[in-house]
């Protein structure tokens, strides 16, 4: 459990948009050490952190991150991608879903988008703010996004000062190729 390069880039995006986070309902999926969710909570968002319900030590890491950052109001729940659970059903509508480097195993892509689609049914205006590290030119979300009636906008890293090898005094992004995406329903009229 450590901070991945994509988490620093997503945290930078959140910081760049910090004024729009106040009072927003934000869910981080696959949170791990929870850097993006912690930043969102520090910027005034109402944050819920989640990681796999099958990995209790990941949920404990989320809790420890909240404790170390003096954020007792942040809830931590178990969500397993692609599974309908009581925790998923009980979630209130979200404004933003955060996902830092969750698209790393192609066999998980559809389960992730299934979960996001379910959350989009609760609030069709919700956006998934996601960063991922390019690991293979053969991996693509495009077909799955089309299948789930979603669209994707690529956000240039230079538009939020994340196009450097170091961000906020962290060398974590380094020379990794990181992409920033905003995913939403394809139909804006919903």
From TrEMBL:
<keyword id="KW-0217">Developmental protein</keyword>
<comment type="similarity">
    <text>Belongs to the methyltransferase superfamily. METTL23 family.</text>
</comment>
<keyword id="KW-0963">Cytoplasm</keyword>
<dbReference type="GO" id="GO:0032991">
    <property type="term" value="C:protein-containing complex"/>
</dbReference>
<comment type="subunit">
    <text>Interacts with HSPA5, HSP90B1, TUBULIN, UGGT1 and UGGT2. Interacts with TET3. Interacts with STPG4.</text>
</comment>
<keyword id="KW-0489">Methyltransferase</keyword>
<keyword id="KW-0539">Nucleus</keyword>
<dbReference type="GO" id="GO:0044727">
    <property type="term" value="P:epigenetic programing of male pronucleus"/>
</dbReference>
<keyword id="KW-0808">Transferase</keyword>
<dbReference type="GO" id="GO:0001939">
    <property type="term" value="C:female pronucleus"/>
</dbReference>
<dbReference type="GO" id="GO:0005737">
    <property type="term" value="C:cytoplasm"/>
</dbReference>
<dbReference type="InterPro" id="IPR019410">
    <property type="entry name" value="Methyltransf_16"/>
</dbReference>
<keyword id="KW-0007">Acetylation</keyword>
<dbReference type="GO" id="GO:0035242">
    <property type="term" value="F:protein-arginine omega-N asymmetric methyltransferase activity"/>
</dbReference>
<dbReference type="GO" id="GO:0140297">
    <property type="term" value="F:DNA-binding transcription factor binding"/>
</dbReference>
<dbReference type="Pfam" id="PF10294">
    <property type="entry name" value="Methyltransf_16"/>
</dbReference>
<comment type="function">
    <text>Histone methyltransferase that dimethylates histone H3 at 'Arg-17', forming asymmetric dimethylarginine (H3R17me2a), leading to activate transcription via chromatin remodeling. Maternal factor involved in epigenetic chromatin reprogramming of the paternal genome in the zygote: mediates H3R17me2a, promoting histone H3.3 incorporation in the male pronucleus, leading to TET3 recruitment and subsequent DNA demethylation.</text>
</comment>
<dbReference type="GO" id="GO:0001940">
    <property type="term" value="C:male pronucleus"/>
</dbReference>
<dbReference type="GO" id="GO:0032259">
    <property type="term" value="P:methylation"/>
</dbReference>
<protein>
    <recommendedName>
        <fullName>Histone-arginine methyltransferase METTL23</fullName>
        <ecNumber>2.1.1.319</ecNumber>
    </recommendedName>
</protein>
<dbReference type="InterPro" id="IPR029063">
    <property type="entry name" value="SAM-dependent_MTases_sf"/>
</dbReference>
<dbReference type="GO" id="GO:0045944">
    <property type="term" value="P:positive regulation of transcription by RNA polymerase II"/>
</dbReference>
<dbReference type="GO" id="GO:0035642">
    <property type="term" value="F:histone H3R17 methyltransferase activity"/>
</dbReference>
<dbReference type="GO" id="GO:0031072">
    <property type="term" value="F:heat shock protein binding"/>
</dbReference>
<keyword id="KW-0949">S-adenosyl-L-methionine</keyword>
<dbReference type="GO" id="GO:0050890">
    <property type="term" value="P:cognition"/>
</dbReference>
<keyword id="KW-0156">Chromatin regulator</keyword>
